[in-house]
Write a structure and sequence with these properties.
The protein has about 240 residues and is mainly alpha-helical. It has one domain. About 40% of the residues lie in helices and about 5% in strands. Strands 1-5-4 form a three-stranded mixed sheet. The protein has a two-stranded antiparallel ribbon with strand order 2-3. Helix 3 crosses helix 4. The protein is globular. The two termini are about 30 Å apart.
Length: about 240
């Protein structure tokens, strides 16, 4: 997924996202990440390096672009509704268990979280870089989109009795952000990218053995795919934010 002024090709993996949240420093600065040097098989799984996603600079640029596009989308949405918008305070990266905590609880590795206590998004940079290298830059747009959706839920006072409902709604909101941004020309899609969205979403669902009422449940692959594409195709009207 790209900005109109960029040439990177969308290749999305919505991989391993366990529905925690990710944020951005909106005080005029840039996301506080310090990614390791990008390395690995040239061009990721296809051996194709056309999307330019194999360097630390590309990773940092895509994190910045994804954060800015999510913030711009929600800022415009709130303005259209006549509401004041408060961006997420910051996005930070980490590499170790417990390096970042949310309300006194350590944030684990291989994760990304939105923390209401402090209003920030934190992500394991090694986790994000690995997915970025193996699949492509659009993973970061989904990652930021899903986690920014959790921040919007917090701002709107949205509450759900079950975790699965909260997570599927965030998937829908991430889909709305990406779909509306593509239709509004703020982001661009390459041919075949919608299929890649779908394949990525199939990888992030709960195991079918996980009961839907389990705390921390995020939904099956089918449920998450349906929620995301409902938002993508029908915008926020599909996400039950009323």
């Amino acid at each position: 997924m790209t900005r109109p002024v960029l040439t990177r090709v969308l290749a999305l993996l919505v991989a391993g996202l366990v529905a925690v949240a990710c944020g951005i420093d909106t005080g005029g600065g840039t996301p506080e990440e310090n990614p390791p040097a990008a390395s690995g098989d040239p061009g990721g799984p296809s051996g194709d390096d056309d999307d330019g996603t194999m360097t630390a600079d590309e990773f940092k640029n895509d994190i910045q672009d994804a954060a800015e596009s999510a913030e711009a989308y929600w800022s415009a949405t709130f303005k259209q509704s006549g509401e004041r918008f408060q961006p997420v305070r910051r996005i930070i990266s980490y590499t170790r268990d417990g390096e970042v905590d949310c309300g006194g609880e350590p944030v684990p590795r291989n994760n990304a979280v939105y923390c209401p206590d402090g209003d920030f998004i934190a992500y394991d940079v090694n986790f994000a870089v690995a997915a970025f290298q193996q699949v492509g830059d659009a993973f970061l747009y989904y990652l930021l989109g899903h986690e920014y959706a959790h921040a919007i839920q917090q701002r709107l006072g949205v509450q759900h009795r079950l975790t699965i409902d909260h997570e599927l709604q965030a998937d829908c909101m991430a889909g709305a952000y990406l779909g509306d941004s593509v239709r509004g020309k703020a982001l661009q899609l390459a041919e075949g990218d919608l299929d890649e969205f779908q394949r990525g979403l199939l990888a992030v669902g709960d195991d079918p053995s996980v009961p839907w009422f389990t705390p921390g449940a995020h939904g099956t692959a089918e449920q998450r795919t349906e929620s995301f594409f409902l938002g993508y195709e029908r915008s926020l009207d599909a996400c039950d934010l009323s």
